[in-house]
Structure to design on (928 residues):
């Protein structure tokens, strides 16, 4: 398989990094030679210095034989031209683009089959806003991934200090929490652990569990995680992400937005109906106290500045905000931000990369989300008659070592997999897979 | 630096390398000669050493491999491959002293072709085949071969590739380095087969044809005959060999374009145009010189010139004429010709055409700036502008090559050798040519040289083959600092 990536930014880099470990031929195009040199030092990919809108560059990149074109430069226009070229001149099978500008993004005609035919267009700001909204809906989780139209979720739970499961071996977990569930993976300080009976849970671990939505609250409380239903939200940063969140929430909950730029404030006040728009700084202690930070259920920092987002979130936490969520785009900061005590840390770049990866998987993969800094993929796959795992008991399947079947979803019900369970046609499996086992899983499924 | 990764790379290369030792056994078997035992013992020693180091270090293979490990790994691989490659010479009794055997082995792997053996024709066929194989492996590189066949080395492959394959930038002909290595070896093997076929067609025995094909495509220069290619007494073979040596000195990426049918990229390649212009010019001058001063027959002068100029510029080192007896004008040209070398990305040694071409362009630019002080210019290669760092690194490379040449020449002359012999043997070793001038001309051998001189030359061959930086960086204190 050959993938052409236009744009060597954070998104392009993360996609390339993920795919390069899977024996996929990758050609990356960017106009910045220095960036390309740095990437090619680290990743085993080919790079071409040139414009993403130049047909001769595409030709050199072997676009004729490319299966997927991913246009993720900073410019929407370049991304659209790249996709157009890929379609018109080189007949690339699938074209994926990052489209930021809402005028383009919501113009389904322009992006649709008849014109640009971009499938899919991804709007990082909108995706980030949606991810934050999912977290607000299930406030005890650090991360929420929805399956089956939201009926089934994989929730990331951070083990708190007072939890009774601390320092307990997993095999005794059932006797502490009288519920049927399975832990998919454990994330501990940037390290991923595939859980075995002897592993011990520690404070600060993030565990990922597949759950039915209605059971989610109960199980998280059993782990000692208490959360409040979100009634009051404060958003720092009135950019596109802040705007999308406010627009979705303002009818149901109390929303306050703090934005430094007066022009942006005016824009927000014109376009939002009920939200309170404050002209000020999210790191201004006095302002936060005046606006009753103590009563805020979720304090969300989504400005364009990572450092400022982290600091503002920490300040709000100290002043009593119940949950703080920060947007941190620089990958190196993410685990740091978690360590500092921010409950949820999101990166729109990683999110975009993870969404794009979903479209590159083959087989009967219904959905896919990368978590834990893209080290792990959660895949939802359909058990089809072609697959070699069908009608077999789980214990007879030679499943890769670094992967876990977290749940079998059959008719909307979650089955916690045991050795004797048999996978039937039409079942949906939720699989947690470390990078190196993904190829094996794909082979098992096809 | 993680020494275990380094040893792991070395052990993998050794295991693969040991397999090549089985081929001469086949030859010995066919021709019923007696050196099978020596090769078998060498094979087992190499294989067992490789396997045992591998098992001691195997846990570390997935760890991140950085440039330091790559440089050390490649250098150590070459040093140890030459060591184990010298075993067959010692264990079959072909050579008596370790110094001589190591010299012969290193000269083989670096595709230099300098020999300590005066009479090769009395040696068993298996040994001569082994000499050919060492050059064939060395031509494309043992680490690149390991990369092509062992997926284990895939991570960090780029660093290893860069450390072993000479060049200014890495030309990846496939997006992934493992595929690139595979394709390179495939092209290389294909060319070897074609050349062997051509030689056999021109009247060589299949054994001679294959041995010479190995040392032609790798621009190595070992022969199975005492008088090299002259012994076949066939102008046809000489012309064919001349052309085939050229094949080895052309950037292998161009063969990839040839296979793809992208002829435009070949004809418009700046380096190949520059290379062929230089060749044409030198052949013209030298033919004229030989016609007027030495042979007086135009055909003979042209034939010897064609063969000898190509043999030296491609750093092969075959000989059909004893150019050490030509006039000083010719000898001076030959001495400096050694430094030119073939194209980047080929099996040839030397400074390489592309570097010379770019430096000449840079010099022209300096003049241009004297006339138009405010001009903004950029130096392009194949219509692509190069950045300043690359040009600076080329200056550094050339100056380093000359510095090493001067220092090594002085050391060699301290062992009592005359000046022409000293400077020409070092030039020949650094550029992996083989024969030199003076006491080491095409009809003499390195056997009578003092041991110290041989070891200095061994070192020169190694650093020349790996283009100086890979080896010499190990001598920089900062390299070892944590």
């Amino acid at each position: 398989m050959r993938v052409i990536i236009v744009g060597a930014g954070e998104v392009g880099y993360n996609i390339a990094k993920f795919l390069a470990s899977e024996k996929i031929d990758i050609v990356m195009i960017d106009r910045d030679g220095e960036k390309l040199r740095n990437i090619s030092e680290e990743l085993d990919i080919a790079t071409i210095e040139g414009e993403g809108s130049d047909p001769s560059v595409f030709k050199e990149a072997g676009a004729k034989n490319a299966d997927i074109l991913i246009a993720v430069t900073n410019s929407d226009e370049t991304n659209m031209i790249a996709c157009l070229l890929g379609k018109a001149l080189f007949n690339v099978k699938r074209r994926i683009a990052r489209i930021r500008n809402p005028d383009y993004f919501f113009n389904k005609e322009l992006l649709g089959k008849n014109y640009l035919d971009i499938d899919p267009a991804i709007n990082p700001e909108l995706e980030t806003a949606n991810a934050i909204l999912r977290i607000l809906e299930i406030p005890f989780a650090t991360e929420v991934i929805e399956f089956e139209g939201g009926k089934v979720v994989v929730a990331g739970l951070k083990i708190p200090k007072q939890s009774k499961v601390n320092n307990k071996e997993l095999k005794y977990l059932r006797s502490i929490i009288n519920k049927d569930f399975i832990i998919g993976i454990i994330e501990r300080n940037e390290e991923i652990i595939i859980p075995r009976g002897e592993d011990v849970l520690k404070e600060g671990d993030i565990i990922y569990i597949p759950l039915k939505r209605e059971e989610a609250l109960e199980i998280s409380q059993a782990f000692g995680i208490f959360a409040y239903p979100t009634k009051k939200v404060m958003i720092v940063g009135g950019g596109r992400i802040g705007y999308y969140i406010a627009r979705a929430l303002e009818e149901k909950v109390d929303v306050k937005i703090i934005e430094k730029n007066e022009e942006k404030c005016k824009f927000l006040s014109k376009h939002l109906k009920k939200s309170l728009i404050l002209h000020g700084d999210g790191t201004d202690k006095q302002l936060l106290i005046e606006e009753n930070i103590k009563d805020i259920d979720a304090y969300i920092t989504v400005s364009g500045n990572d450092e400022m987002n982290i600091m503002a979130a920490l300040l709000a936490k100290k002043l009593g905000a119940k949950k703080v969520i920060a947007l941190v785009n620089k990958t190196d900061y993410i685990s740091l931000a978690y360590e500092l005590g921010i409950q949820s840390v999101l990166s729109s770049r990683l999110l975009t990369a993870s969404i794009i990866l979903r479209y590159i998987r083959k087989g009967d993969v219904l959905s896919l989300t990368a978590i834990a800094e893209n080290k792990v993929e959660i895949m939802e796959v359909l058990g089809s008659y072609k697959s070699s795992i069908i009608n077999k008991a789980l214990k007879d399947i030679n499943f890769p070592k670094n992967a876990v079947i977290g749940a079998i979803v059959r008719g909307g019900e979650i089955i916690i997999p045991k050795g004797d369970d048999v996978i039937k046609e039409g079942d949906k499996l939720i699989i947690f897979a470390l990078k190196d086992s993904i190829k094996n899983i794909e082979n098992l499924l096809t | 630096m993680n020494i275990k990764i380094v040893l792991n790379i070395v052990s993998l290369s050794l295991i693969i390398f040991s397999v090549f030792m089985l081929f001469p056994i086949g030859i010995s078997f066919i021709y019923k000669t007696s050196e099978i035992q020596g090769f078998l013992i060498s094979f087992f020693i190499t294989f067992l050493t490789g396997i045992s180091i591998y098992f001691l270090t195997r846990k570390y293979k997935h760890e991140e491999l950085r440039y330091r490990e790559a440089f050390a790994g490649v250098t150590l691989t070459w040093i140890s491959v030459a060591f184990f490659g010298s075993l067959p010479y010692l264990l079959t009794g072909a050579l008596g002293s370790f110094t001589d055997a190591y010299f012969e082995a290193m000269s083989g792997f670096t595709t230099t072709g300098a020999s300590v053996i005066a009479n090769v024709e009395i040696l068993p066929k298996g040994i001569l085949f082994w000499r050919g194989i060492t050059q064939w492996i060395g031509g494309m590189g043992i680490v690149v071969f390991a990369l092509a066949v062992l997926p284990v080395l895939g991570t960090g492959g780029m660093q290893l590739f860069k450390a072993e394959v000479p060049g200014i930038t890495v030309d990846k002909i496939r997006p992934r380095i493992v595929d690139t290595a595979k394709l390179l070896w495939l092209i290389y093997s294909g060319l070897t087969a074609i050349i062997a076929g051509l030689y056999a067609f021109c009247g060589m025995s299949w054994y001679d044809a294959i041995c010479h094909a190995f040392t032609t495509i790798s621009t190595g220069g070992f022969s199975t005959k005492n008088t090299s290619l002259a012994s076949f007494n066939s102008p046809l073979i000489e012309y064919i060999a001349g052309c085939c040596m050229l094949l080895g000195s052309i950037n292998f990426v161009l063969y990839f374009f040839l296979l793809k049918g992208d002829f435009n990229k070949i004809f418009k390649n700046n380096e190949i145009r520059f290379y062929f212009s230089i060749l044409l010019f030198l052949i013209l001058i030298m033919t004229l010189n030989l016609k007027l001063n030495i042979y007086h027959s135009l055909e003979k002068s042209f034939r010897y010139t064609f063969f000898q100029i190509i043999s030296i510029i491609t750093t092969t080192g075959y000989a059909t004429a004893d150019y050490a007896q030509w006039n000083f004008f010719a000898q001076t040209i030959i001495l400096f010709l050694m430094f030119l070398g073939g194209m980047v990305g080929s099996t040839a040694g030397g400074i390489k055409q592309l570097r010379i071409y770019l430096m000449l362009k840079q010099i022209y630019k300096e003049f241009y700036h004297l006339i138009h002080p405010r001009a903004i210019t950029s130096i392009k290669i194949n219509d692509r502008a190069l950045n300043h760092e690359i040009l600076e690194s080329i200056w550094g490379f050339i100056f380093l090559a000359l510095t090493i040449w001067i220092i090594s020449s002085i050391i060699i002359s301290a062992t009592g050798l005359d000046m022409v012999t000293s400077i020409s043997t070092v030039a020949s070793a650094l550029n992996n040519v083989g024969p030199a001038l003076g006491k080491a001309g095409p009809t003499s051998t390195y056997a009578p040289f003092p041991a110290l001189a041989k070891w200095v030359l061994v070192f020169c061959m190694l650093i020349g083959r790996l283009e100086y930086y890979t080896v010499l960086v190990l001598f920089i204190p900062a390299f070892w600092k944590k």
Observations:
- Chain B has 23 helices and two strands.
- Chain B touches chain A at residues 154-155, 157-158, 172, 174-179, 384, 387 (CB under 8 Å).
- The first helix of chain B runs from residue 3 to 20.
